[in-house]
Amino acid sequence: MNDLFTKTDYSLYSNAMTFMRRALVKDPMSDNANVVVLGVPLDMATSGRPGARLGPDAIRRASVNLAWEGNKFPWGFNVFDKTNVIDCGDLVFDCGDAEDLTYRLELATAEILKSGKTMLALGGDHFITLPILRAYAKHHGEMALIHFDAHTDTYANGSRYDHGTMFYHAPNEGLISAKHSVQVGIRTDYERTENGNAEHGFHVINAMQANDMSVEDIVDQIKTTIGDKPVYITFDIDCLDPAYAPGTGTPVCGGLSTDKALKILRGLAGINVVGMDVVEVAPPYDHSDVTALAGATVALEMLYVWASRPVDTHAIES
Predict the structure, then answer these.
(1) In angstroms, what CA-CA distances link 283 with 62, 95, 187?
(2) What integer is the mean pLDDT of 276-294?
(3) Residue 240: phi, psi to the nearest 5?
(4) Any idea what DSSP says for residue 91?
(5) Under a CB-based contact definition with an 8 Å cutoff, are residues 52 and 123 in contact?
(6) How many CB atoms lie within 10 A of CB 146?
(7) How high is the pLDDT of residue 194?
(8) How distant is the alpha carbon of residue 47 from its chain centre?
(9) What pTM, to 2 d.p., does this model score?
(10) How far is residue 150's CA from residue 108's CA, in Å, rounded to a whole number?
(11) Arithmetic mean of pLDDT, 58-86
(12) Average pLDDT over residues 197-211
């Protein structure tokens, strides 16, 4: 009788949903955790179909379908045996105030990093990555970026708050090194040079190339490009073909399958990943929660990659 109201092994349908049924801790700095999951319910930087503000909740709800498994196939361990992960809920900001969101998100990220933890952010549109990178760069210095997307997001046009301009600003601000960064799945127009790099300096493995290449070759190119720099991984769900992820604001045909994307992520085990996010899940356009489930699975794979990183990583204190 004592556990009637305190039991934490809930069914798939009961009580408030957290990512992977991790503990809900509203003050993450006070908890002895390694990774903090933070939802950022934003879609006011979206250029097309809105709805990504509902992404964090959808990803969390879909994640409970993964929580029962224990050791995530095909990994040989349970990530939660190695890593203490908590969910601190969603960032609270003034709705419609992009400046307030930017300030609060960078500050929240910085506080989490100062407490010795890292962050898995659940978007929300892709603009959220820019203020997050600003906080990470103050802590880790200039980073490499592994960017899964249908779009380069390096467009110079647009407002200060636009989900297509983050990776134009990030290299210019010294947050990431373009020559050590890789974009996978690109299938919208970008300027190419003869050596395979885009005009903006990122190494690009476009969707047609990625679909024809082996996972091993893709992973090898990624690892060669990033070198030994600290790495931030950002995964826009529209990297996946709309057949696998219809619930997103800017779907583009010809993308990666869920299977191939997950295999690439698994191949990154051992890199010095310091932070990660999954963005652009838009539930209003989803079917049977397939996009939310893909987002939750990608996020879980990222945690396994983080748990497999070298242990002798060092940060630059801000």
Answers:
(1) 11, 19, 23
(2) 97
(3) -75, 150
(4) P
(5) yes
(6) 26
(7) 43
(8) 19
(9) 0.93
(10) 28
(11) 93
(12) 86
The pair of three-digit structure tokens given for residue 241, joined into one six-digit string = 């073909």
pLDDT (tens digit, 9 = 90+) per residue, 300-315? 999 999 999 987 544 5
- What is the number of alpha carbons within 13 Å of residue 40 lying toward its C-beta? 33
Asked if 285 and 54 count as a contact pair (C-beta separation under 8 A), the reply is no
Whole-angstrom distance, CA of residue 70 vs CA of residue 306: 17
Q: Please report the pLDDT score of residue 312 as a whole number.
A: 53
Residue 50: closest CA among 234, 242, 294, 281: 281
In whole angstroms, what is the distance from residue 62 CA to residue 73 CA? 17
In this prediction, residue 155 carries a pLDDT of 85
Number of H helices and E strands in the chain, helices first, is 9, 9
Tokens encoding 216: 């091993």
Contact (CB, 8 A) for 185 and 256? yes
Dihedral of alpha carbons 30, 33, 34, 38, sign: negative
pLDDT band at 44 (very low <50, low <70, confident <90, very high): confident
Query: Would you give the DSSP letter of residue 266?
Result: H
Residues in the chain: 318
Structure tokens at 127: 């603009």
- Report phi then psi at 167, rounded to 5: -95, 10
pLDDT tens by residue, 6-16: 555 556 666 66
